[in-house]
Amino acid sequence: MTAPEERRAVKVALLGCGTVGGEVARLLAEQADELAARAGVAVELAGIAVRRPDKHPELPPELLTADAEKLVTSDDVDVVVELVGGIEPVRGWLLAALKAGKSVVTANKALLAEHSADLFEAADAAGADLYFEAAVAGAIPLLRPLRESLAGDRITRVMGIVNGTTNYILSAMDSTGAGYAETLDEASRLGYAEADPTADVDGYDAASKAAILASLAFHTRVTASDVHREGIADVTAADLGAARMLGRTVKLLAICERVADDDGVESVSARVHPVMIPRSHQLAGVGGAFNAVYVEADAAGELMFYGQGAGGAPTASAVLGDLVAVARNLVAGGRGPRESAHAALPVRPMGQTPTRYHVSLSVADRAGVLAQVAQAFAGHGVSIAAVRQSDVGDRASLVVVTHQAPDAALQSTVDEIAKLDVVHEVVSVMRVEGEDQ
């Protein structure tokens, strides 16, 4: 075996110098000696690509460039750190870097959720590394345990809070009783929500992260388009109140799991949607803008990962951890983990995925109503786990919690119930996770 080439430094091209990129640049300078000691070699910036170099007077001008494509293929660069976000032109830059033999560290969840196969293939062809710990859950060390620590185990489920904005909103709605719109406004004022919060509140951000988690956990290529996605805009204060009465709360969860059919044939389910969970569940107490992910594996059992899921410094911490790993690999002449998609399990459609529903109805207050509603559930093969009824003026409030059934069967049941003469309104429908109440 040929000895690895001795290096005096690992040269880094930084793409983007916003909230996270600025922290990465600062920490590379302030912690240079410590990073060199950990990596076994000096880690130095070779250049920083930004859209408008004149807008960054705080950075050494000799490092700044607007030509990202030229920077990533420069002979002076060993590693490209990408913190720009978006798909194009970033995808082209990273493919060019990998084809030129540069290793890549990225926090780009949207790109990875759609084009990880292309990136991994380019990395393999060039013998380069591709690391992306910061793409999911910020500072929380989550992806490396899935890729490496649990590589010898069989993961059956990954479920978690992976978007801080939606968790802040739902936590605040639960604690204050306020509605969605006013809580979103407050989150924007406090800086927890972007000026355009669509990616967060409509579940796109969480769906990209779910695709990455499912791909790693189940050794299967899962893209964002494979993930069933629902946001939180339709969650009401009444939903949180109903959950509270049942000893539950509401969270937007990414849920990725192995699902077996009646013949034992496995597939992957990946979904993002609001969920009622028991307040005794480990995820129920995760408040504010924090993230937490719950992992179940055959041998390891139940694991919990918790921490700050966003922000400049926390995300930069994950980026630097990847950068040190890549530098160590370059010093040793080795490589980090490659893509593992050997299982190639099919992705199960949401309609075939087993779920449970909490259905709140406004119904006529007379005899026989419950029997008609129960008959509709039975007609679609859906078993009822619990029923609660209370009078509201000249009407009655009826809450039904089901056992597991295919999601399509549950949705068809709700559609049929909505047409019953005795049902004034389907007030809300929400999926349920956790033990029966």
From TrEMBL:
Write out the residues that bind NADPH: 109
**Would the keyword Oxidoreductase turn up in this protein's UniProt record?**
yes
Spans through the membrane: none
Name the Gene3D superfamilies on file.
3.30.70.260, Dihydrodipicolinate Reductase, domain 2 (3.30.360.10), NAD(P)-binding Rossmann-like Domain (3.40.50.720)
Q: Highest taxon of the source?
A: Bacteria
Q: Which InterPro entries match?
A: ACT-like_dom_sf (IPR045865), ACT_dom (IPR002912), Asp/hSer_DH_NAD-bd (IPR005106), HDH (IPR016204), HDH_cat (IPR001342), HDH_CS (IPR019811), NAD(P)-bd_dom_sf (IPR036291)
Alphabetical UniProt keywords? Amino-acid biosynthesis, Methionine biosynthesis, NADP, Oxidoreductase, Sodium, Threonine biosynthesis
Q: Where is the active site?
A: 209 (proton donor)
The first-level EC class reads: oxidoreductase
Question: Which residues participate in NADP(+) binding?
Answer: 15-22
Concerning its family, UniProt says: Belongs to the homoserine dehydrogenase family.
* Name listed for the protein in its UniProt record: Homoserine dehydrogenase
Please name the source species: Amycolatopsis camponoti
